[in-house]
Write a structure and sequence with these properties.
alpha/beta, six-stranded mixed beta sheet, six-stranded antiparallel beta sheet, 15 helices, 32% helix
Length: 495
């Protein structure tokens, strides 16, 4: 149903401009540092809005922290754009990117500003290529300033026991989640492999057609899941082509303003997209403490709340972008949200092919979603976010009409109530059953067969087994559900 312009509240937040930047060059010195990529993205977003002069009127700049070392890059960008009264906010790693959108849009809706910018960038490809060549990595130095606000998480995403065992990479932990999901659903290893290939094969097709994607090389489903020298196995079942690629040179930017400001600027309303709802869960439980390793109840709750708020059903969402660091993240979201696996889950090509710049991929998701919604006259689009190891969950809904007053809600307490937990004991011994595992080939973390083992009394412990025969078996036969005898000093015997 179309909403009359006269009925739209003046402080309604609206997305007026978006951009995505991807830079490549034979000589990495021709590629911009993160700050330069951000500036380019910002100016291109303003041009997309049809209001380049709007940059001098920015009230706030919101930025997810990246690998960069700038102390307050929002301030530097504001100065470059001639905006002198900007409030700069940096969200540390561990803060959902949906939370950033929620806070920025809420500020506009509550009259705390008229123009807000959300942007981020990474240039790890540039830096790594220069470092490998023994060349200096030119960067702007900024250490004397600090943002007006720093958003920080209130807990750790990884347990100390996990860290001590070397289970420190997302690849290892997500692989264990994926294997636990396979076992829970009674899926064979062959069928699991086929599902991963088909899912990521579709992501690859989208990336090939996306001019902003980092890797547009066509790959078949079988090529994606088959280990080769160029596509080595990282942690079973994940090959290199099944994991996020963060060695990219990419930036994205969103410009939001109030509806009244957009009207005053005379912008084209046919290009407006409205943030309608954000629902986040910030209940943090480490992987080893989760009673159901294959679940993420916070996503079911966040999805349900966002849709309830917007007053639409999942079937009414035209376009989706599910956070896609690893297949486990997408597969669990599909199940928790109730999304048909046949429904396309990406508009970008995902974090393997579209590109996954550490802490700002969701900005790319929103930028591409806005472009697609404009092009297809889609009524609704859903973009999700993950922080950590499926530790936090966020769902955002965008619309072509401001059908509701923007809302940002938390489902944290509900997630706490619906997430089962277990007690983990480092020293536990005796007969147990394997709840999750992987076979890790990581060069800088645990190698061998990490195991999560459950005892009948509800206790849990972890082990890492350095046994080549078991590693070969784990990549060939199901280890989940197997009984083991756990002895002192990390001893493990399969029964």
């Amino acid at each position: 149903m179309s909403v009359s312009p006269s009925s739209i509240a003046p402080q309604t937040p609206v997305l007026i401009g978006v951009s995505s930047v991807t830079e490549r060059a034979e000589d990495p010195l021709e590629i911009g540092e993160p700050l330069a990529l951000m500036e380019r993205a910002l100016r291109e977003a303003a041009a997309d809005a049809g209001a380049p002069k709007l940059l001098a009127e920015i009230d706030s700049i919101w930025m997810p922290r990246g690998f960069w070392a700038y102390s307050d890059p929002g301030r530097l960008l504001a100065e470059k754009c001639g905006s002198t009264a900007v409030r700069s906010v940096i969200a540390d790693v561990g803060i959902l990117q949906t939370t950033i959108l929620g806070e920025a849009a809420t500020a506009l809706a509550q009259g705390r500003g008229e123009v807000a910018v959300i942007l981020g960038a990474e240039a790890r490809d540039r830096a790594s290529r220069l470092q490998r060549a023994g060349r200096e990595v030119p960067l702007t130095e900024q250490t004397d300033g600090k943002p007006d606000e720093t958003m920080t998480p209130d807990a750790e995403i990884m347990g100390q026991f996990e860290i001590d065992l070397g289970l420190i990479t997302p690849t290892i932990q997500y692989a264990m989640i994926d294997n636990a999901l396979r076992f829970h659903e009674g899926q064979t290893m062959e069928a699991h492999r086929a599902e991963l290939g088909a899912l990521w094969g579709d992501f690859n097709k989208v990336a090939v057609a996306n001019e902003d994607a980092w890797n547009r090389t066509p790959m078949s489903s079988d090529e994606i899941v088959t280990p080769t020298p160029d596509n080595r196995m990282l942690a079973y079942p994940y090959t290199k082509s099944l994991v996020s690629q963060w060695n990219v040179n990419q930036a994205s930017c969103l410009i939001l303003c109030t509806y009244a400001k957009a009207k005053a600027l005379g912008l084209d309303e046919s290009r407006f997209v409205y943030p309608l709802a954000v629902a986040d869960s910030e209940y943090m439980v480490t992987l080893s403490e989760r009673g159901e390793i294959h679940r993420s109840p916070g996503f079911a709750l966040a999805g349900e709340r966002a849709l309830e708020y917007v007053r639409c059903g999942l079937e009414e969402i035209d376009l989706f972008e599910l956070y896609s660091c690893f297949p486990a993240a997408v597969r669990i979201q599909q199940r928790e949200l109730g999304l048909d696996p046949a429904q396309r889950a990406t508009q970008t090509g995902g974090m393997t092919f579209g590109g996954g710049p550490l802490n700002n991929f969701v900005l790319q998701s929103w930028a591409k979603m806005v472009e697609r919604m404009r092009a297809e006259s889609a009524a609704y689009g859903m973009v999700t976010a993950v922080s950590g190891l499926l530790t936090k969950q966020g769902v955002s809904v965008l619309g072509r009409e401001p059908s509701v007053v923007f809302g940002h809600e938390k489902v944290t307490e509900a997630a706490r109530q619906q997430t089962s937990t277990v007690r983990v004991d480092r020293e536990a011994q005796g007969r147990a059953r394997v709840a999750a595992y992987t076979v890790s080939h990581d060069r800088n973390a645990a190698q061998g067969v990490p195991l999560i083992c459950d005892f009948e009394d509800g206790l849990r412990t972890l082990r890492v087994v350095a046994d080549e025969a078991l590693a070969e078996e784990g990549a060939r036969e199901e280890l989940c559900g197997r009984e083991v005898e756990l002895g002192p000093e990390g001893a493990v015997r399969f029964l």
